[in-house]
Design brief:
Two copies of one chain form a homodimer. Chain A is an alpha/beta fold. Chain A has three domains: about 45 residues, 434 Repressor (Amino-terminal Domain), CATH 1.10.260; about 130 residues, Rossmann fold; about 130 residues, Response regulator (Rossmann fold), CATH 3.40.50.2300. Chain A is about 45% helix and about 15% strand. In chain A, the strands form two sheets. Chain A has a six-stranded parallel β-sheet with strand order 2-1-3-4-5-11, with helices on both faces. In chain A, strands 7-6-8-9-10-12 form a six-stranded mixed β-sheet, with helices on both faces. The first copy, chain A, starts with 6 loop residues before the first helix and ends in a 7-residue tail after the last strand. At the A-B interface, helix 4, helix 5, strand 2, helix 6 and helix 11 of A face helix 4, helix 5, strand 2, helix 6 and helix 11 of B. The first copy, chain A, binds a DNA duplex (30 and 30 nucleotides) through helix 2 and helix 4.
DNA sequence: ATATAATGATTAAACGATTAAACAAAAATA
DNA sequence: TATTTTTGTTTAATCGTTTAATCATTATAT
């Protein structure tokens, strides 16, 4: 690879000091630089194909204009949609994004934090996995700006952006009840993650019957969903509705209902969480809780940029969701 | 934010030179450093919470251990799945990934190239949009390692990784023919993108009837798909099968077939491209061309790392796809 | 006892940019 | 004309690391 062109090469080419080149290319010292010199320097920069070295600039300025984004899995549409919006917003503000997937593991999260730290990111947007209090404390301890995204720890004072999971689940169940469903099953993950606990609580506070809960182990997704649905269908009074607290659970559950030949919504009404093409293609388009992705992502970035400029104050944002009602839940 | 701890702080704390600290922490000069000094330095690094500054290191070493990934849209599952695999492989090799979405625009691609270049990435993996010859030449001209991914320009000698699009489409159509379909419609984008042209060519070489083609404008997706399907259904001999050359086209098309109440596969057999949950949830699980994501991504990274180590040689890799046959195409 | 080798550490330059401070030359003011 | 101001530019330090070159010591060989 050819040696990259530095400010020194430009200076040498024109016959001036590197300082002058820097001043010109950064439009500093306006009016104190001769038009001829400025013109020659700009031309030389173009001719030589000069590209400023952000690395050197960062070293000097102690700012990389880079943010670290830690999501559960960038391959998951929820994460990647968020990533896309953050990318755009970041770019508008002169920032780049380095991302990492934690796979819901606290250890991987810690590794990513180290990795991003030694790349000197100016701040983090993090969706923390379960049992990551240590990582949270670490971040808080080194006093670097960060925003908790999607999941947060209400007992710790941090910047965070999240939806009102309790309300979202509550609305979903109320909707099912309003449509005459009496036995509403809830399919969720067996996890201590705050956001999922809230979804569960939002639903069960209305249902008050623990035998209608299915708690799926994350590493036995299909198995536990199928078994759970089997159980709910064989109750003395079988369920007439299912509320799935995540995307993946809903898709897995709907596949199984298809296999069983259960009719939606005639036999079972269904409400899912998050938007996905799959919900549209189902023969009864699926009612779902819609998260305001734009807001979630852009608010996260805004809070982070605020925190970078002003490390003191902590802000929390809770955003409402929308229940998109379609055929799968009304009969 | 607290000042970050540098090697200098560690040196000062122990009472040695920064050089010695560097040697110890990098395990250089093995055996030529006293055990006591080494131990004290390592301890101090831990006590002070020292994190090496990759920016400074990069400046010195002229290597950032960062690669730039330019995809069409990170929010698109194809891109994000690829990104995830590249992320993992990159991390194993000590690299980080900075990504950008081009939105199929050559200008945005150029901007991303500049942005990533001044962040001094060691190389690029790029899915080029249409009419991006200029960007391709630019990359080749500045002599930076890069790998074209998914789309490539056969007339230019570069590193590339792609699937055999012609063969993939050909297999899909042959499969439909083998199942007795006589009038096979093909729904594709109106574009000069090489990979899509190849898919189209693979299909039309077997079909030989231009009235069975639907060329959708990318910015009028739903509109053109719907109109195209309408037309194909009203032909004197209406189509009895549809081959969609992309994921989004297939999903849009299937939604419309649902609206029309057209039965799949009884009336129309369907083959799609790429894997998606939506295909599973359709009442007749959809037959599709499966791209080997793992291979695509990891080969791209391998080629790039090869190119970084050895900028001379150019490699091209073409990978075969697999047709996953399900209910939507067999009657 | 002296020259040589091995050990353990330091010095200083470099990477590419920024920027306060210094400087020379020209222009304005006294 | 002498002095001050303004203008245009350069000098040099700095950011945090790496690393070749160098320098003391101490150990070993002659």
């Amino acid at each position: 690879m050819k040696k990259r062109v530095s400010i020194k090469d430009v200076a040498l080419h024109v016959g001036v000091s590197t300082a002058l080149v820097s001043y010109v290319l950064n439009n500093k010292k306006e009016g104190r630089i001769s038009k001829e010199a400025a013109a020659k320097i700009r031309q030389a920069a173009i001719d030589l194909n000069y590209v400023p070295n952000q690395i050197a600039r960062s070293l000097k300025s102690q700012k990389t204009n880079t943010i670290g984004l830690i999501v559960a899995d960038i391959a998951n549409p929820f994460s990647s949609q968020i990533a896309r919006i953050i990318e755009d917003e970041a770019q508008k503000n002169g920032y780049s994004v380095i991302f990492g997937s934690s796979d819901e593991s606290a250890d991987k999260t810690q590794n990513l934090i180290f990795l991003l730290l030694n790349r000197q990111v100016d701040g983090f947007i993090v969706a923390l996995p379960e049992n990551a209090e240590k990582q949270l404390n670490y971040l808080a301890g080194i006093d670097i700006p960060f925003v908790l995204f999607d999941r947060y720890y209400p007992e710790v004072e941090t910047n965070f952006v999240a939806i009102d999971n309790y309300k979202a689940a509550s609305q979903a169940v109320q909707h099912l009840m309003a449509n005459g469903r009496k036995q509403i099953g809830i399919v969720t993950y067996q996890t201590g993650l705050h956001h999922l606990s809230e979804r569960k609580r939002g639903a069960t506070d209305l249902i008050q019957n623990t035998s209608l809960e299915v708690n799926v182990r994350i590493d036995h997704l299909k198995e536990d969903v199928d078994a759970g649905i089997d159980r709910l269908l064989k109750l003395d009074t079988p369920v007439d509705a299912l509320f799935f607290t995540t995307n993946l659970l809903a898709i897995s559950g709907l596949k199984y209902l298809n296999e069983l030949g259960v009719k939606v919504p005639e036999q079972i009404a269904v409400v899912g969480f998050d938007e996905t093409d799959a919900f549209d293609l189902f023969y009864s388009p699926v009612t779902y809780v819609k998260q305001p992705m734009e807001q979630l992502a852009s608010q996260s970035l805004r809070l982070l940029l605020d925190a970078i400029d002003n490390p003191g104050a902590k802000q929390g944002v809770v955003i409402d969701t929308e229940l998109v009602v379609r055929k799968s839940s009304v009969s």
